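Chapter review. Work through the record for Extracellular solute-binding protein before attempting the end-of-chapter questions.
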Amino acid sequence: MTSTGFRRTVVAIGVCSSLALAATACGSGDDSSASGKTRITVNCEPPRSAKLDRAFFEDDVAAFEKRNPDIDVVAHDAFPCQDPKTFDAKLAGGQMEDVFYTYFTDARHVVDVRQAADLTPYLGRLKSYGSIQKQLRDIYTVDGKVYGVPRTGYSMGLIYNRALFRKAGLDPDRPPATWDEVRAAARKIAALGGGTVGYADYSAQNQGGWHFTAELYSRGGDVVGADGRKAAVDSPEGRAVLRNLHDMRWTDDSMGSRQLLVINDAQQLMGAGRLGMYLAAPDNIPILVKEKGGDYKDLALAPMPGGRGTLIGGDGYMFNKHDTPAQIRAGLKWLDHMFLTPAKGFLGDYARARKNDAPVGLPEPRLFTGAADATDQQAKKAAANVPVENYRSFLEGNTRLRMRIEPPHAQQIYSVLDAAVSAVLTKKDADIDQLLEEASGKIDSILARS
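Structure tokens for Extracellular solute-binding protein:
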């Protein structure tokens, strides 16, 4: 999933949505345009409805073409950038753009079906590659070969309401670091009354399974075993996740009576100032302010409770297996310009973002390391227009957590785990051992079919 509800909604793929199009419409390997330039097709241009992002993207492409007059960039709009219902069909039909967007969880699949170009011989042309976080680079590395380049990365944390913490007698500068502390804080916040909810969690539309996974990782557990063949949820860590949710719901009454929530429900509660805590990534914060009525000063972010791990996600670009060497070199140049130069480009021009009232200073995405990261963070700090101190705990705590990507066949597995999470939140007598045993059997079947 993507961070803000995982952005896996059904959208048009833009210019290349029809599989009946000729191969030249997307990724063809033909690197010549009528002018004799090297032409590359790319996707994930923001839609026309997102006027500001679209304008930024087009300005940056124009600047790139001016700097590289021998390259012609043909952008296809699709945002969200990948429709899971058509992604595999586009792969199988050879219809991907020359440079195409992928979620982290798609990278291995694209390689396995042999639709990705090997970028390894060309990496010397990507100036920023060595400064990208290794754990993100490794996602696109298979058997020692590099098949893609990360663009953004995020990790889950605990969003909490500082105003409610103060009102409940809690220190907003010392957020919960363990699940026991989350439970205790949720009880105090719920005791404020007036419809206030201490802690909220999702349990529908696969989102319950996603959060179960995040909470399991935070305790050091696994969804799937190391060999990728058997489920690992029927474990002490899995039981602890469900037991904690059950007890917060039924013993403490700190999660409210309304359940089967999804991300929008939690965001509405938090934006209205009636929710103490929920799990999310940093990009939820501007949504809470701009769409749900929240205030930046009241919203803070802490690392995942539990201290063992956190669920990460993100995206990047891969290259069509039919690309010519010239197209690969051109595509890498384009990525460097658009996304991978610290404090510049579509995602890194913080001064431009601030000028247009976009939030600057959120703790993620954080792509780089070393001097590149220092340059990026310094520019972000200089342009910040949100209370960066509210996210210090998240930044510091994340350095001690193991970063974990989503399990294989994530959406199918999340659907199974939804049932377990929803059961403990809606049935006081839910049998946790039975729920995990049943979930394990269903996950084993999913893995066997793959």
